[in-house]
Design brief:
heterodimer, A: 482 residues, alpha/beta, 11-stranded mixed β-sheet, 12 helices, 23 strands, globular, B: 251 residues, Rossmann fold, 6-stranded mixed β-sheet, 8 helices, 40% helix, binds adenosine-5'-triphosphate, binds magnesium ion
Chain lengths: 482, 251
């Protein structure tokens, strides 16, 4: 049977649902990057000396670096002098103390995004630290968490209130010399989230941050640092959207996770940044460095990501398995449609003995989307009895998209066991016809088939998030059936 | 109910159906037999709405609608059902979710309230029992790793749950052991009533011993070369299609 590419294309033609712009008075630094700008950012945030020093070191190092070229992505050169590195809503200059102090326009934005903060405050279970452009504007549940000694606050606040923790852990997993984008972030990052769970504490609710890029020509450089002390547990959710713009915007975030002995961190992302239009105009360049370190024995870090947005995604949430018996996991769904490009995967570095890692990647390509899984499994000489299992599955919708799998394996200890499995399949007319013949609408059928393909990853998301992710996939694949 | 007139169908420029006339009335059971490659599945799939065929001449009316103008999901919601010769696997989608989604799409069209998980399970469990199916198949992914016989029974289960007005079964009997064949035949017979029409595509007289058809058609090289009563199937079993082809040439 000839595959009806046209029909599939119509099915997956989609429109971006979060493409509105909020009109707010903002305090934006003029475009361009130099030491002056960095001093200005640091001054606006009333940062201690060590932070400014660190930023300047990063900036000077950045000047000597060039953009990496090894990823399977293509874009016109980025003009780093044409970006504004700091933007904050004016009314929130000194940080609102409660939701009622927030600009109502801002609250409406969050409502459009489906994060009713007011409700969230009542809804037990999710505490939201909302980052609007560069400044954290609302942090809920802080009091409740404080009782347990949990710190969950905007990064800029942590720098002032807990400088010793920030100084101890900042850059200890992703040093400012790590890579071009992480270096840039270290120099100019404006805000983000900070989280510390004290020894033996199990965080009783999912912590969650929503990021949103609003201001035109603003790059967003947020920084997240999560530390789970001995025997602590935390589950963290991150969701992202950005408005529609014709020009491309840069997003270069850094996330560092640190799990001490016996601690567990689960980090889940649903990334739905603006992907650009059907012709590939506009969209976010999402160049993100995410890394966790299982620093203590018996610690456990897992990354789960659902990536449906951005024009370009360049992202490799990784785990350094330093402690003995530590466990690293990476579960990923990446969807590319139209002209989207994703080069994503993970790096698992086995250092400690008896360390375990699991990688499960599901790539979905539609339209002219290009999806690359890039993974590195590295077993160092001391990692006695290390184990890795990697599975990469690709699903193609239509015949103009691409799926690529690039696994690297470096084993320096003969006792290691590393397994890799890969598959590529296509949503056929056969499957689609089977569904529609039973009365199921074609759009629902495609979304059901894709969800089925992603099931093993969704199982690792918290319940409410799994439902949301499933809906998002449905929306991402939505369009007219002609 | 179904009226096919002078239907000509080509695939990639090659003519496969070459002038089919077929009238099916409510309550009737028709059997379509014929050699491999004669166009039986093509006819069934075209009627069910599969894309990729060119209708070069003729018309199909179903319940006074121009069926060829309807997309497959609308035909299904209007009561057209095809039990596939080769049921498709859908990894990660549970059989229960699939069938419930299908049933509710059809109920919605008919103005009936959607069934919730509990009501759905009660309904489907009953039907499974009658077909001698293991309930565990509900939680498995659609047709994934099902044995040949399980797949065929699963098709009949879907038919029993969706209660179509026009059910076409494409070689549902092949690959079934004799006990399964009886269960499937019982399942089909239970569904026979004055409003429902059934079209059976089969190679074997054996099925027609259990489900006695009102009319038997023989399809050869894209044409219905002979139609008759149930006794025609017995003659075919005895003499083979060669006998018919000679007869066609003689007449
Ligand atoms: N998509 C297609 N492309 C090319 N030829 C096709 C296509 N579909 C069907 N045909 C051809 O049309 C003819 C009829 O096929 P069909 O499957 O309808 O036969 P059938 O009567 O169901 O046979 P069987 O008894 O083996 O199931 C065959 O020659 C087949 O190869
Ligand atoms: Mg056939």
């Amino acid at each position: 049977m000839p595959t009806s590419t046209k029909q599939l294309d119509e099915l997956i033609g989609r429109e971006y649902r979060h493409g509105f712009v909020t009109t707010l008075e903002t305090d934006t630094v003029p475009r361009g990057l130099n030491e002056e700008v960095i001093r200005m950012i640091s001054a606006r945030k009333h940062e201690p000396e060590f932070m400014l020093d660190w930023r300047l070191k990063a900036y000077r190092y950045w000047l000597t670096k060039a953009e990496p070229e090894w990823a399977n992505i293509h874009h016109p050169p980025i003009d780093y002098q044409n970006i504004s590195y700091y933007s904050a809503p004016k009314s929130g200059k000194d940080g609102p103390r409660s939701l009622s102090e927030l600009d109502p326009e801002l609250l409406r934005t969050y409502e459009k995004l489906g994060i009713p903060l007011k409700e969230q405050e009542m809804l037990a279970g999710v505490a939201v630290d909302a980052v609007f452009d560069s400044v954290s504007v609302a942090t809920t549940f802080k009091a409740k968490l404080a009782e347990l000694g949990i710190i969950f606050c905007p990064f800029s606040e942590a720098v002032q209130k807990h400088p010793e923790l920030v100084q101890q852990y900042l850059g200890s997993v992703v040093p400012y010399t790590d890579n071009f984008f992480a270096t840039l972030n270290s120099a100019v990052f404006s805000d983000g989230s900070f989280c510390y769970i004290p020894p033996g504490v199990r965080c009783p609710m999912e912590l969650s941050t929503y990021f949103r890029i609003n201001e035109k020509n603003t790059g967003q450089f947020e920084r997240t640092l999560i530390v789970a002390d001995k025997g602590a547990y935390v589950s963290y959710l991150e969701g992202c959207t950005a408005p529609m713009r014709d020009e491309n915007q840069l997003h270069a975030a850094v996330v560092e996770l640190i799990a001490l002995e016996g601690a567990q961190i689960k980090y889940a992302t649903v990334q739905n940044w603006y992907p650009g239009d059907k012709e590939g105009r506009g969209g976010i360049y999402n160049f993100v460095t995410k890394r966790g370190e299982c620093r203590g024995d018996n610690s456990h870090i897992s990354w789960t990501q659902v990536e449906t947005g951005s024009a370009i995604t360049w992202k490799y949430p990784s785990v350094v398995l330093r402690g003995d018996n530590s466990v690293g996991e990476f579960y990923s769904v990446a969807l590319t449609n139209h002209y989207q490009q994703a080069d994503t995967g993970t790096k698992m570095t086995h250092i400690g003995r008896n360390t375990r890692s699991t990688v499960l990647s599901k790539g979905i390509s539609a339209g002219r989307g290009q999806n690359t899984y890039r993974g590195l499994i590295k077993v160092l000489p001391g990692a006695e009895d290390a184990r890795n299992y990697t599975q990469c599955d690709s699903l193609l919708l239509g015949d103009r998209c691409g799926a690529h799998t690039v696994p690297y394996i470096e084993v320096k200890n003969p006792s290691a066991k590393v397994e890799h499995e890969a598959s590529t399949s296509r949503i056929g007319e056969d499957q689609l016809f089977y569904c529609t013949q039973r009365g199921i609408a074609p759009e629902e059928a495609v979304s059901m088939i894709v969800s089925g393909f992603c099931k093993a990853v969704f199982q690792n998301l918290p319940m409410e998030f799994a439902v949301e992710a499933q809906k998002l996939l449905g929306v991402s694949l939505e369009g007219s059936t002609g | 109910m179904l009226s096919v007139k002078n239907l000509h169908v080509a695939v990639e420029g090659k003519e496969i159906l070459r002038g089919i006339d077929l009238d099916v009335r409510p309550g009737e059971v028709h059997a379509i037999m014929g050699p491999n490659g004669s166009g039986k599945s093509t006819l069934a799939q075209l009627l069910a709405g599969r894309e990729g065929y060119q209708v070069t001449a003729g018309s199909v009316r179903y319940l006074d609608m121009d069926m060829l103008a309807m997309p497959p999901e609308e035909r299904a919601r209007a009561g057209v059902f095809l039990a596939f010769q080769y049921p498709v696997e859908i990894p990660g989608v549970s059989n229960a979710l699939f069938l419930k989604t299908a049933l509710n799409s059809i109920r919605k069209q008919r103005g009936l309230p959607e069934l919730d998980a509990m009501d759905f399970l009660t309904l489907v469990r009953d039907k499974m029992k009658l077909l001698g199916m293991d309930e565990k198949l509900l939680q498995r992914a659609v047709n994934e790793g099902f044995s040949g016989g399980e797949k065929k029974r699963n098709e009949i289960l879907q038919m029993a749950v969706l209660e179509p007005s026009l059910a076409m079964l494409d070689e549902t009997d092949s690959g079934l052991d004799i006990d399964a064949l009886k269960l499937v035949a019982d399942g089909v017979n239970r569904m026979r009533n004055a409003e429902r029409a059934i079209v059976l595509v089969t190679h074997y007289q054996r099925l027609l011993e259990f489900i006695v058809p009102d009319v038997v058609h023989v399809l050869s090289q894209g044409r219905i070369v002979k139609s008759g009563g149930a006794e025609l199937a017995v003659e075919l079993e005895q003499y083979g299609y060669g006998w018919l082809e000679n007869e066609v040439q003689v007449s």
